[in-house]
Amino acid sequence: MTQGLGFENRRIARLYRGVPDEQVARLLQFRTAHPYRRVTIDGGDWEYIDAGRGSMVILLLPGALGLAESSWQTIVHLAARPGIRVISPSYAPTVTTVAEMIDGIAGILDHEGVSLARVMGGSAGGYFAQVFVRRYRDRTERLVISHAGPPDPEQGSKLSGSLCWLRLVPEGMMRALFRKRMEGLLAEGRAETALVRAHMSEIASFRLTKEGLMNLYRCLADFHLHHVFSPQDLAAWGGDVQLILADDDPATPLSVREEMTRLYPQARVHLFHGTGHTASLLRQEEYFAVLDGFIAAGP
Fold it and tell me: 246 in a domain, yes or no?
């Protein structure tokens, strides 16, 4: 229905038709309770959400949608735990390299007076989390990598090649292409994904810009083409790692899962079955239990 729920744009409201009103209301309540904070770092404008209160800080890196709000259900869950503060950035649309992105995220922590965090990244955020821990070992207490693999030069070459023609595509068409790609990661006809599908459509259709999308692709290409990881990278770090994977996730086939366990021999591994790329939606209680048992645990 979505009537009277506070959407200013009727076109946005139509995206949520078929989603139970109480679910939409929770999303809108989250937006009201957690407005974006803003800071300028090295000339770039960054937005982020700061939720919860406590000395234990969780740095939550979003996926390819690039907005902190896209992880709102995880933010709500973690921030509700006593003593936990969650900081989740949106990726600055002007950033073109992973190094710039990671340094900007570290700048947000500096701005908030945070010296140490437990870092979590899902999907594309899992790529960036792996770089963050290597670039800022002394600021990373623990690491969670969810539904993500290591750098893949072949994938990087495809992304780099696509940038040549994507710059010629009108913004509206580029948004539509991105929206279709993101929706392809969601299970069809599942009630658990209806809200996320509508929310994803809203972000892709109304809140992303062509510049932001192009630069996100540049960052992803940079990750895959210009980073090489080894198990020795973190030998002197000593922190704990949690890998969250699924046996039928197209982003992490068996070969990728095996490589991730090779790269992180100290990691705990939780393998979901039959959830594809969306374990956090289809098995939300189990997914949150894994987080509670690791990232939100004591020292």
Answer: yes
